[in-house]
Amino acid sequence: MSHKENRSNSLLGLKDKIQYLSDKCSLQWLGYVFTPVPTPLFKRLFWLATITACCACSAVVLRGALALYTTDAVSYSVETDYLEWDTPFPALTMCEEANPTWIKKYLAQNSLPATLATFSQEVSFRSVKFCRSCVSCEMGKTCVQNFLELVNGIRRKCDELLTDCWWDGKPFPCCERFHPIATEFGTCFVFNSRWTGDEAIINRHTGLPSLEFSATQSINIWIHSPDDMITIASENILGFCGTLHRITDFEVTLKAEQTISDVSVQLLSPSNRDCLFAHERPEFANLWPFARYSYSACIMYSRAFVQAEVCNCTHHFMPQIGNIPKCDFDGLVCLHKAKKEDLSTEQYQCPMACEEVIYTDIHVACPRQSSNVPEELLHRGTRGRMSLASHPSLRVRRQAIRELLGLVAVVLRGALALYTTEAVSYSVETDYLEWDTPFPALTVCEEANPTWIKKYLAQFHPITTEFGTCFVFNSRWTGDEAIININRHTGLPSLVFSATQSINIWIHSPDDMITIASENILGFCGTLHRITDFEVTLKAEQTISDVSVQLLSPSNRDCLFAHERPEFADLWPFARYSYSACIMYSRAFVQAEVCNCTHHFMPQIGNIPKCDFDGLVCLHKAKKEDLSTEQYQCPMACEEVIYTDIHVACPRQSSNVPEELLRRGTRGRMSLASHPSLRVRRQAIRELLGLVVDVGGVIGVFFGASLLSFLEVIYILFIRRYT
């Protein structure tokens, strides 16, 4: 058989296979193009062109899915639905500062040579170096073999460091909540650490509690997440205020930045998500000694393990790692002589934690009194106060974009997720050049003499609050014409005011009104006594909503626009919606349900009367749970601005006040630190076309129908008859 005949037979065989495939295969479009039945050329070309176009479109879609599957497995989204968030209160670790005077006194009391002072300090209080004096010392005179007895005797106990403590203004025995914890600095004492079984959670129901403490000795402090432990490598956000010498007034105000992980992230392997959950362990940590995982614990483990590799022991302040012994005197000499690169932990890559909270200080002060100290302060010692400036209004969620089901799951998951999860997503914008930002509103209340307020604050407009008639600057509740917007063309203006009487002030969004439940970001500086120099610098965090969000129902987007009303508010008295207005309405409505009247400071709700004397008695006698507004769930506003203070000061002059200041009174100044460079946009991820796409996907998967099926019907009914 010739080569030409073989080639002809091969082509005929291929043709037969294609025709057989077109007749038997469930892919109907093959039959339209390759059927052996006599078929008009137009029909074959029509379906060939249609199929080619569909292949091109599907290639574009699948290429995106393939890219999603072959790149990062985790994405990050921003959330601003903050009303029900729980935030861990920061942990505070306190370690004793080395005191050479006390060390010499201890040696004298125990009939030990004074020449041990340097050695005793180096083994009792860890520094960057391990033990400099161990290298060249005279045993029994300037150093000893059994140094742990010195350490245990020199280090003070909790009740020798702390005297008085307060949580949320209520006193408590310090050592009941400051628990001992092992650190690289020795045994320290920590408040609110998960490593000691504590966890104080705050939210918008608990308010903003603060921790206060008094210490009679010089101490070192670290503020950190409850999941972290302190190591030599730990960053101290307090800077030089991390060391509090005796008789120091310490105050810090913090901001919390929280990252949480979606349930889907746990389905990924640790190598794909690049983080570990609390119940997981690093791959290299075969002797992991801790009950949970955190990045700082991994760093401490790595440092201890490297010490064991170099010197066959770990520093006596390190945690117990398996059966590895603690270093004796010779071990300390080995650690001190080891080169820096020998003790490097670069070969151990510690993953970050999948869920964490980072705290940054927005105000910290630690003035020390070192001369002419009153007897009262000598007895009191150092006084410290730690608090959060405000509840978080933004957090980051880690989500899985690639799961174990692989590429097929990536293609099919989208349709299912859209209708089983939220309809709104959040994105971050940074094109800030043309943004307009509302200047914050300032509400001033003075109960004793409202006539004086009207006289001296004529530029402030009266507004109804739960504190009575107050006066507000730059509020939408007194007319949109009063709103001041700032941008990069207007610069950064400031508001300066003087008051000759004591006043209470709130700084808030122009959309908000003040209620009893309102959080005052100024803390104790919210009350300005006479002759106070008040100054606050603010940061604005803005959330806006895309036009597509308005197409969603309020129940799907979980927020309301200014022109909308809550479902339960049949007697809504206000011209616009805001979360704070909804809270005030709820509080007034509950009062009416219990006592058939509302407090005389409340806004008018329909025809509900204001309380007379008997009504006030009824409100006072009502139980707290009777006046609870939990049954009324107020949605957040779809567009809002939240202000946080990054610097606030309110020093008061109460003695030897010059005549000029007596005439001037209190002076206040409010400004923004900078224009915002980041804002959050709320967007709809479930649109009207979504249902059509999802239904089409389900029909295609389970019934084999597609766009081609509909085109086939159109062809048979309308085109075939003419061809």
Word description of this protein:
The protein has 723 residues and is of the alpha+beta class. Among the domains are: 93-155, no CATH class; 164-227 and 234-253 and 359-400, no CATH class; 437-681, no CATH class. The protein has 20 helices and 32 strands. The strands form 8 sheets. Strands 1, 4, 5, 9, 12, 15, 16 and 17 form an 8-stranded mixed beta sheet that branches. Strands 18, 24, 27, 30, 31 and 32 form a 6-stranded mixed beta sheet that branches. Strands 6-7-3-10-11 form a 5-stranded antiparallel beta sheet. Strand 6 (178-183) and strand 7 (186-191) form a beta hairpin.
Concise description?
With about 725 residues, this protein is of the alpha+beta class.
